[in-house]
Amino acid sequence: FLLVTISCSDGQRPRERVDEFATDSISPTAAMIPYDPQGNHEVVSVSFNGVAFNLLWDTGCSMTTIPVTDFIRMVNEDKITDYDFSGTAAAVIADGSTVESFVFNIATVSLPNLKGKPVTLHDVHIMVSPNPNASRLLGKNVIDQLGAYRRDEKESCIIIE
Questions:
Q1: pLDDT in tens, 31-72
Q2: Strand pairing of 149-152 and 85-92?
């Protein structure tokens, strides 16, 4: 074994290992979205048309969803109107049942960035669950628009490349 290893090494040295999660290995153009670890979930701060919410980062949820109580708060703060209504959609929830939900267009979705300006998306559809106790979920429709990402558990942030 030793003879084969030496003859195959051809004088090469092993490459230096790079910690891909190290903060100093982050691209200068990358964004760092902080999250609050809660059990097996990441909770991120998100602003819809200037109204702040905490949502679960949920890659299993196809569309970002808020409960009707949050929607009412946005209406009361004049941050969403009937004009933003985009229709209805059937949503399959975690227990397997289907719920009819309203879909609204959000003009500006912002997420904080530890490296500078917030990450901002425009004209994003969200579902409003009729259940006042529904979870606040940041779904794939937003996550996919952010691009490639990875978690840095040490820094409690999601790095968007």
A1: 999 999 998 899 999 999 999 999 999 999 999 999 999 999
A2: unpaired
Place of tokens 């290992």: 17
How many H-runs (helices) and E-runs (strands) does the chain carry? 3, 11
Closest residue by Cα to residue 138 from 119, 116, 117, 114: 119
Residue closest to 158 by CA, chosen among 55, 47, 44, 62: 44
Cβ neighbours of 91 (radius 10 Å) = 19
Alpha-carbon distance values, 63 to 1, 26, 100, 104 (Å): 55, 28, 13, 11
Helix (H, G, I), strand (E, B) or coil at 82: helix
**Residue 10: per-residue pLDDT:** 47
pLDDT value at 159 more than 80: yes
